[in-house]
Amino acid sequence: MQLTLLKSKLHRIRVTEACLDYEGSLTLDPDDMEAVGIVPYEKILCADVENGNRFETYAIAGARGSHVCCLNGAAAHQGRVGDRLIVMAFGRFAAEEARDWQPRVKRF
User: Fold this and answer.
1) What gap in Å lies between CA 104 and CA 21, rounded to an integer?
2) Helix (H), strand (E), coil (C) string for 29-82
3) Cα torsion for 11, 12, 13, 19, to the nearest 10°?
4) Active-site annotation holder among 8, 22, 25, 41
5) Which terminus of the chain, N or C, has fewer Cβ atoms within 10 Å?
6) Residue 35 — φ and ψ, nearest 5°?
7) What is the pLDDT of residue 64?
């Protein structure tokens, strides 16, 4: 049996930009992505702490060291600059692996 578990989480990362005229996605600093194991183009679930909106998109890498968290395209309607997001990625694990699994989390 395979279980879907939380793999990676950026907890309360601040939205730094919103770019409506973009093809989509969430731009993140590669340092933050690597800290929790999110890879470019990976599917992510985002929850906006301020307004309760939840949406799926994919992660793309911005400039290293920029601390960017940019809502792109349609996702720009889901939050505002200054909002705190919980960004989550999930993975599939065998039941045996799931018993001792711990996600990688970075808190802001």
Assistant:
1) 32
2) CHHHHHHHCCCCCCEEEEEECCCCCEEEEEEEECCCCCCCEEEEHHHHHCCCCC
3) 120
4) 25
5) N
6) -60, -30
7) 99
Task: Give percent of the chain above pLDDT 70.
Answer: 100
Q: Which range marks the domain in which residue 34 is found?
A: 12-85
Q: State the catalytic residue, choosing from 8, 22, 41, 58.
A: 58
Active site residue 58: yes
Tokens of 76: 């720009």
Residue 71 in any domain: the answer is yes
Domain at 80, CATH number: 2.40.40.20
**25 in catalytic set:** yes
User: Total domain count for the chain?
Assistant: 1
* Structure confidence by residue, pLDDT tens digits, 66-75: 999 999 999 9
